Amino acid sequence: MLNNLRLPDFTIPAPLTRLGNRLPQLPPTLALVTTLNLALGRLIPREPLEMLIGKRFTIRVLDAGMTLRFSYGERGFRPLFDASKPDLTISARTRDFIALLAREEDPDTLFFDRRLLMEGDTDLGLLVKNTLDGIDLPRFDPARLTPQELLHRLRARLATPHNA
C-alpha cells in the first residue's frame, strides 16, 4: 500500500518550468480557489479566516513555473487578475507542496530547511500557518487516485441505491 511510502524527492525539469512560466496562470488559480471555496465551512472553518479578508496572496510553485494570485473576501477566495504586490507570498517546489498536503512534512520543517519561503507580512504568514495547522484535514492518500481505485469507488457509488 502507498500509505507507508515516502514521496520521492523530485524537481520538475527546467524546460517544463520555462513552459509553465509561459502558460496562462488562471486555470490552476481557478482550480485552487475552487478547491479552497469548496472546503470553506466543511474542512476549513470561516471564523479564523476573518483576519484574512482583503488580503492578497501569491503561491509560487517554483519548479512548475506557476504563480497563483488570489485574495480572500467575505464571499470566499477569488482569483486576482493583476500582478499587484501581495501581502504574502509562499514559495516552494511541487514536491514540497505535495508533501505538505500528504502530511509527510510540516511547514516548520520545510521553512527551517529553506524549502518553504514566506515573503511579505510575517504576522499574516504566521496566521496562515497556524490556521492551516489547526485544520483537521483528511490525510491525502495518493493510492486513492490510481485508476483502479477510482474505478472501484465509482462502481461502489453506482451500485449503492440513493434514498429519495
Uncertain segments are none
The CATH class designation is: Alpha Beta
Strand content: 15-25%
Number of strands: 5
CATH architecture: 2-Layer Sandwich
Task: Determine the N-to-C terminus distance.
Answer: 36 Å
What's the average pLDDT?
86
- CATH superfamily caption: SCP2 sterol-binding domain
Total helical elements: 6
- Do you know the CATH topology? Nonspecific Lipid-transfer Protein, Chain A
The helix content is 25-40%
The rounded Rg comes to 18 Å
Widest β-sheet, arrangement of strands:
3-2-1-4-5
Secondary-structure element string: HHEEEEHHEHH
Decide which structural class fits the backbone. Answer: alpha+beta
Shape estimate: globular
Keywords:
164 residues, alpha+beta, Nonspecific Lipid-transfer Protein, Chain A, five-stranded mixed beta sheet, 5 strands, globular
Can you characterise this structure?
The termini are far apart. With 164 residues, the chain is α+β, with helices and mostly antiparallel strands. The chain has a single domain, classed as SCP2 sterol-binding domain (Nonspecific Lipid-transfer Protein, Chain A), CATH 3.30.1050. The model has no long low-confidence stretch (mean pLDDT 86). It has 6 helices and 5 strands; from the N terminus they run ααββββααβαα. Helices cover 38% and strands 17% of the residues.
Helices, strands, pairings?
Elements: H1 14-22, H2 26-39, E1 56-61, E2 66-73, E3 76-79, E4 88-92, H3 94-101, H4 107-112, E5 116-120, H5 122-134, H6 147-159
